[in-house]
User: What shape does this take?
Amino acid sequence: MTLLSSGRRSRVLPHRRVWRPWLLLAPALATLAVLLIYPLGRVVYLSTQDYGLRELNLGLSNPVGLDNYRAIFEDPLLRTALVNTVVFAVACVFLTVVLGTLVALLLVRLGTKLRAVVTTAIMVAWAMPAVTGTYVWVFIFDTPSGIVMRGLDKIGMVDPDTTNWFVDRLSFYSIATLNVVHHGFPFVAVTVLAGLMTLPGETMESARIDGANAWQRFWNITFPMLRPVFAVVTILSTIWDFKVFTQVFLMPGGDGANRDVLNLGTWSYITGISQKEYGLGSAIAVLLTLLLLLITIVYLRSMFKEDELR
Assistant: This one.
C-alpha cells in the first residue's frame, strides 16, 4: 500500500511542478492581458484601419492595410517629431542620471538627520504632479511677466516685446528639459544613494590610501559595483523620457499650435483625438512603441554582453 502511494505521488508531483508556477503567475498574467496586451492589440488593429468618428459611431471597420504607416513616412512632420523626441529624450536621460548621481554622492556624505531633511526636500519635486510642475516652469519663463524674463529685462539682456521662448524650438525644449530633469532626478538620486550605502567602506578607504582621487574612486570602483543600479535608472529614465507628453502638451504651442515642437506622443494625440483620425494616430503610437522597444532591447543586450565579457 505504501509502495503504491509512493508510486502515485511520484507520478503526480512532476505534473504539479509544471503547473504550479503558471497557477501562481495566472493573476498577474491575466491583469497584464487586460490592461496591456488587449489595449496594445487594439491600437495595432486600429493602425490598419481608416477609422474616424463615422466608423466609431456605426461600429464599422474599414481596413486599409499599411496605408496609415505609408502616410506617416511620407509626411515631412515625421522628421521633426522624431528629432524632437529622440534628442529631447537623450538630453533628459543624460542630465537626469548625471544630476541624480551627483546629488546621491552629496547625500551619502551627510549625517543621518541632515540627509533625511535633504532627501525629503528633493522628493517633493518628484511627488509634484507633472501638470503642476509644467505650469510652474511656464510661469517662470512666461513672456513678459515671467521671473526670468523680468530679471533679464532689468539688466538689458532681452527685450520682452520681441522675445518669446515658447516659439523657438530650441528654447521651447530647453525649458521642457529643465522641467523633466527637475521632476526626474530625485528618483535617480534616491536609487543611487541606496546603492552607495551598500558599498564596503574598506574598499573605498584602501583606494583613498593608495592615492586615488574622487573621480578615480568613482569610475574604477563605485560605477562598476553599481552598474546594475545605473542600468535600471537609465532604462527607466529612457522609457519615461521618450513618452513625455504632459510637459510638452501643456506648454504654449505644445498642443499643436506650433508644429515645430511636436514630438511623437503629442503628434499621435493631436492626430487621433483632436483631429478624430484614430487610425493614423494609432499608427504613430505604434511607431513610438516600436522605437521604445528597439532602444530597450539594444541597451539590455549591450549590458548583458558586457557582463558576459567580465
The chain has a mean pLDDT of 86.
